[in-house]
Amino acid sequence: MREVDARGLSCPEPLMLTADALKSEKGPVKVLVTEPHQRMNVEKFAKDHGRKATSSEMEDGFAIVIE
Amino acid sequence: MNLSDSKKKLAFAGVACGLVAACLAYFGNPANMAFCIACFIRDTAGALGLHSAEAVQYARPEIIGLVLGAFLISVATKEYRSTAGSSPMVRFVLGMILVTGSLVFLGCPLRMIIRMSAGDLNAWVALIGFILGVATGVFALKRGFSLGRAHLANSASGGVLPALMLGVLLLALGTTLLKSSESGPGSMHAPIILSLTGGMIFGAFAQKARMCFAGSIRDVILMRNFDLLTIIVGFFAVMLIFNIATGRFILGFDTPGIIAHSDHLWNILGMYAVGFAAVLAGGCPLRQLILAGQGSSDSAVTVLGMFAGAAMAHNFGLAASGTSLDAGTQEVIAGSVPPNGKVAVVICIIVCFVIAFTNKREVGK
């Protein structure tokens, strides 16, 4: 599974990296972010683009798997 | 409580913040200013003695309230994260630029919207510069601009700025150490309890809704996403109704008494610098205060940069003067940007370009 490590990056970099990954990857993509609002942004972005997002909390942020 | 998952909730947050700003204007904050981050940081810097412009010295409880409101709501809703380490000194400089550009225009992006809602056409002209500045920042982002990663820090680090703000509040309430203007904009303010409460409510809503004036335009340009813009529209609508209902809506340029000037080129360039720097810093002056409140030491450094920039703007004669009315002759005296302010804005824009194209995202990340 392709992994996008956007932990610690300022907005809108996590979304830009996610968008780039979804453009080139048709399979599942795992996005790592630090802030709760970034998790929400990534989930919403995936939903708006017809993809399903599942999040889990990690020690230093969140992992969102987009399928 | 989540306010950012639907446009209706975002608009509600904008309306709530608009009501706070309208109340503060009604109860004594300067006309057509209501709630300005750059002006209020400048006033607070003056109260602390960082500059000696006697007309603009007052420890604005709104600034303190914004940080404390964001801190408390983020702790209560488990969104507080103590982070640090993303190019702090570059962010300090961006903070200085945010305030320098704002004080040449005479208002941060928040006040630009408030001025627009009061019919000040200068603010509509400045909006052009702000949008162009944000667009330049977006161009840099697309070219790979990044200030690098922040990392989780000791949890106390993120609490330092809220603690310092609390300290300023205690000094303002319990001592005579802080300066306070006897005339001019610094002397015009709502009662402390209202300003503090208003600031905390505004801060809490802004934190939950991710309110950001640069981010709203950035998202439209970058991703055709209108979510954050919805908040601004809600805020603008409330202020427009308030200004019309209370007779504060005056359509025109060169209106005396509203702390604005009609030096169009410099209104545009001032807000160009602000829009550009705000995208590079990841948020407008308001958003920096909110992020600092929710634990970002990097944003706290940006806020310190804004204080330094505000002090510099008045110590070096960079800030513009507003159009006023001569009390004796009743003649309109046009406000203007001093030569030092013009040079400073040009330097700010050059520095933004240098920062934008010398800080790249790590390859492969």
Helical fraction of chain A equals 25-40%
Helix and strand run of chain B: HHHEHHHEHHHHHHHEEH
Q: What share of residues are in beta strands of chain B?
A: under 5%
Q: How many strand elements of chain B?
A: 4
Radius of gyration of chain B: 19 Å
Instruction: Tell me the strand order in the biggest sheet of chain B.
Output: 1-2
Q: Termini separation of chain B (Å)?
A: 32 Å
Shape of chain B: globular
Residue stretches of chain B low in confidence (pLDDT < 50, at least 5 long) are none
CATH topology of chain A: Translation Initiation Factor IF3
Structural class of chain A: alpha+beta
* Number of H- or I-type helical stretches of chain A: 2
Top-tier CATH class of chain A? Alpha Beta
How confident is the prediction overall: mean pLDDT of chain B?
94
Number of folding domains of chain B? Answer: 1
Rg of chain A (C-alpha, Å): 10 Å
Query: Counting H and I runs of at least 4 residues, what is the number of helices of chain B?
Result: 14
SSE sequence of chain A, one letter per element: EHEHEE
Proportion of strand residues of chain A: 25-35%
- Biggest chain pair interface: A-B, 19 and 29 residues
Q: Explain this structure to me?
A:
The complex is a heterodimer of chains A (67) and B (365). Chain A is of the alpha+beta class and 67 residues long. Chain A has one domain (2-66): TusA-like domain (Translation Initiation Factor IF3), CATH 3.30.110. Helix content of chain A is 37%, strand content 31%. Chain A has a 4-stranded mixed sheet, with helices on one face. In chain A, helix 1 packs parallel to helix 2. Chain A is globular and about 25 Å long. The N and C termini of chain A lie close together (10 Å). The model of chain A has no long low-confidence stretch (mean pLDDT 92). Chain B has 365 residues and is an all-alpha fold. Chain B has one domain (7-358). Chain B is 62% helix and 2% strand. Chain B has helices spanning 7-26, 37-47, 61-76, 88-105, 109-117, 121-142, 160-174, 192-209, 213-223, 227-245, 264-281, 285-293, 297-315, 339-358; strands spanning 83-84, 151-152, 324-325, 332-333. A two-stranded antiparallel ribbon of chain B has the order 1-2. In chain B, strands 3-4 form a two-stranded antiparallel ribbon. Chain B is globular.
